[in-house]
Amino acid sequence: MQNLFEEAGSLDQRCYEEFGLTEDLLMEHAADGMADYIRQNFPLDSSITIVCGPGNNGADGIAVGRLLHHDYRIRLLLPHGAASPMCQLQLKRAELIGLKPTTALEECTIIVDALFGTGFSRTFDTDTQLLLEQTNRSKAFRIACDVPSGVHPDGTLEPTTFKADVTLTMGALKRSLYSDAAKTVVGKVDVLDLGVSRSLYERPSSWQLLDQEDLKLPLRKKSNSHKGSYGHLSLICGEKEGAAVIAGSAALRFGAGLVTLISNEQVHLPCELMQSHLLPETTTAIAAGMGLGQEFSENELRSLLDNDLPMVIDADLFSHTMLTELLTRKQTVLTPHPKEFTRLLSSCALASIGVDELQKNRFHYVELFSQAYPDTLLLLKGANVIIAGEGKFFINPHGSNLLAKGGSGDVLDGLIGALLAQGYSPLEAAISGSLAHTSAAALFEHNNYAMTPLDLIDGLKSL
Q: pTM here?
């Protein structure tokens, strides 16, 4: 896991006060890191246009140009001049070695966006929009300095935002780079050191970015075991029985020793899944909500859920009259998509918003819900999944558009349910279930429109 920060200004300030570093030193290290990236990835004499803003982000860009001058064909573009003291200082240094600003964006091998950094909080003027549109149309490789210009601190975007192939961010990862909206513009994200190790630069953070290495597979290490040793997941099978079948198949593939679908009527199931009208006494976890519909009366549901078993909740239960009662359970994992989460917020009297408002402020509303229900584990689906529980927040950035298909969420519920059944804590189950979900999708080697939930389940065996 890696720390995520809403802002890095306080981390810079700590470098000045505790480590004796200066703003100039941090900037030189940032520029050196960017220059090293370019040297390692592009041949000498490549043409590079660096678009610089009037503040310290622009100063970073000018410093990069100075470091690469004569080894590469550098063009500095300063559409707004140099306003901050550091930007003026870096421009003076560049001019002293013969690097003069130019006035137009021309075709080149690389474009470096150093217009606006993490403090950007306004709208672009027309000239800036036109310039960014021009950079985005270019065939050049695009590098963003710290954050792509147009990404706000809350992760929302300007209508025209620089579309980076790579974002080289300074000192630490910024949370804004991992909003759903930003996923389309940040490209690959790398962190550059600013003169001290990240372990010194950073402070503890309640927000974390999940790495692939955080996936803890339910590998079987005990030789003397049987099917009951690996848990028994019971799924409430509703009107749309396919959802429960998909979830059950995923759970069995992900290590659950037994999987039973609870249904009122006989359902045609794969032979490896069991079926019952009652909750088996050996059940160790429950999954409910997916495809539920009106299959069960409220009394029937109460009888099935009147226990202290770990449970994963999804879909139709987010609009059910029992929802607020279910939120009082311990060891509960909620897996809503954005529209379902807006219903959840409304039912809990936390906010009355639409999906658009939620997507603009995902971080805020996840924190709001988590503060109100600290004992409930939330997994908010999206381009970048957010997991909240135990006072901490985690982002899984490894998903892709392959997962944008009906049934993918049912697979996720099955994975989480399987881990709960095997004794994982809700937080452990949500993190590893989500990472297994995105990792299995990444193994799909065919056209990205073609993956089905069955392909996703099949990919689990190769993790």
A: 0.95
